[in-house]
Amino acid sequence: MSILVDKPKSASYSDGNIVILMESGERISFPVAACPQLWGQPESVLNDIELSPFGLHWPQADEDLSIRGILAGRYGAKS
After folding, report:
1. CA distance 78 to 30
2. Per-residue confidence at 26, pLDDT binned at 50, 70, 90?
């Protein structure tokens, strides 16, 4: 059985939001304020995003978010 999964093509920080462009062309965004680990980080940290087939990683903030979690409204652990 094969399951097709839409993967992130690019991600960036813009105007207080993380914006993700998926391979399908779908655009997903969420406010940085929703993610405790990213909130308050400088723009240089927020723009340093590594992509994986299933999510995003911010090495300087030591934060990982899955696309599945983002779509479900889960943006990391609450402090």
Report:
1. 16
2. very high
Q: Is the pLDDT of residue 31 over 50?
A: yes
Q: CATH assignment of 8-71?
A: 3.30.2020.40
Closest CA to 73 of 29, 17, 26: 29
13 and 46 in contact (C-beta within 8 Å)? yes
Q: Mean pLDDT across the stretch 59-72?
A: 95
Residue 37's pLDDT is 95
Q: Which positions ≥6 away from 76 have C-beta within 8 Å?
A: 35, 36, 37, 38, 63, 65
CA torsion through residues 18, 3, 53, 63, sign: positive
User: Which pair of structure tokens corresponds to residue 18?
Assistant: 């993380």
